[in-house]
Amino acid sequence: MSFNSLGLSDALLKAINKKGYDTPSPIQEKAIPPILEGKDVLASAQTGTGKTAGFTLPLLQILSEGTTKRHRPVRALILTPTRELAAQIFENVKEYSEFLDIKSAVIFGGVNQRPQAATLKRGVDVLVATPGRLLDLCNQNILSLASVEIFVLDEADRMLDMGFVRDIERIIKLIPKKRQNLMFSATFSKDIKKLANGILTYPVSVEATPENTTVEVIQQKVFRVAKGKKTGLVIKLISEGNWQQVLVFTRTKHGANNLTKKLISSGITAAAIHGNKSQGARTKALAGFKDGSIRVMVATDIAARGLDIPLLPHVINFEIPNISEDYVHRIGRTGRAGASGEAISLVSADETSFLADIQKLIGMKIPVEIVEGFEPDPNASTEPIKQGGGRSRSPRGGGSNKSSKSSTKGGSSNSGRRTRDRRN
Ligand code: AMP
């Protein structure tokens, strides 16, 4: 299969060629034809599968074949949960539309809205946005979504995790009923299926990797270790393995900062990336990580979601996530595009039930190792770690949306109902 046979225009093929892509990825092969036919698509695809091009290329083709109005109202809206992901998608949209008469823009919170408002005023065909800032600008009448023809909901599962369900509902009310919808999600919980039912009309379902399974080229390992010895073990693994690009996940922002400091003081360049970091600091950390000047990036789940880090050889879970689906997302950072990778989880006694849930979800037992000098503590309690001070997260304005209602206590009963640590 080649890009030529997918029915894409010469201008898009030229841009694809410039990016150096030879063949479409499986999700592109499956998603592009139905999108070009104008169908709604529900796609199961993780970051790293090439899903961005999967929806952007056909979307650009459809827009470029339609009539461009002089004032250029927003005709395609791409909604995504995080600023980083929004920025990345926007970069892709720009690259793929280089040889087309299409204008695109990105808007997200945490930065001054004035330049964004000025860009919108000049006219934008494709808008990439995070929900909060999008609604802000709509409420101020700076932006109208009345001409949206194509609506893309990217990383829908993470949208729900982050408590954006109400915002999505509000946004849907602002766009025309008659439109094409494309929804992407890495996992498919009941809530996601419900959301999809409310948004999509007779969707074509496409899948890049089977639901909730981990890619086989990723070697997964668990190191059973005493809680207090995790930092030492991370330093040992990175130094002795001479690992040059490592993504480490911690459960909390505080944990990310702490570990980063300790890595730096043992001579390993590192940066933390989490919700409390400014946009500038996050962008700088990511750039340093990509160009090799920073060896270790320490991230929380929400911050790391959607980061485009190609060919990452090592991912370490400093703590394993209490939400099992996050494990699948985390290790999806390694072994991308067919390259092999290693995903290591440091598991202390209090994470035993979380590990059981993860193994249940991925349908396999992860091999366990113990490193001499970093043995688990035989006297430690297996009582699960308390999350975020015991109260479940209610991220936006204290509303009781579904994803923030569930209890955080309890053992290994139902990982899908747990909430993420509020300190993430
Ligand atoms: P995504 O899943 O959209 O975040 O894409 C992951 C990475 O794969 C990005 O760095 C893309 O530039 C790259 N990519 C997307 N499509 C292709 C393709 N057909 N061939 C090679 N690389 C690709």
Automatic annotation (TrEMBL):
This protein is called: DEAD-box ATP-dependent RNA helicase RhpA
UniProt similarity note: Belongs to the DEAD box helicase family.
Q: Which GO terms describe its molecular function?
A: ATP binding; hydrolase activity; nucleic acid binding; RNA helicase activity
* Stretches assigned to the Helicase ATP-binding domain: 32-206
Which residue intervals define the domain Helicase C-terminal in the entry? Answer: 229-382
**Which enzyme class?**
hydrolase
Question: PANTHER family of this UniProt entry?
Answer: ATP-DEPENDENT RNA HELICASE RHLE, ATP-DEPENDENT RNA HELICASE RHLE-RELATED
UniProt record, GO biological process:
response to temperature stimulus; ribosome assembly
Q: Where is this motif: Q motif?
A: 1-29
What organism does the record attribute this protein to? Formosa agariphila (strain DSM 15362 / KCTC 12365 / LMG 23005 / KMM 3901 / M-2Alg 35-1)
* Superkingdom to which the source organism belongs: Bacteria
Catalytic activity from the UniProt record? ATP + H2O = ADP + phosphate + H(+)
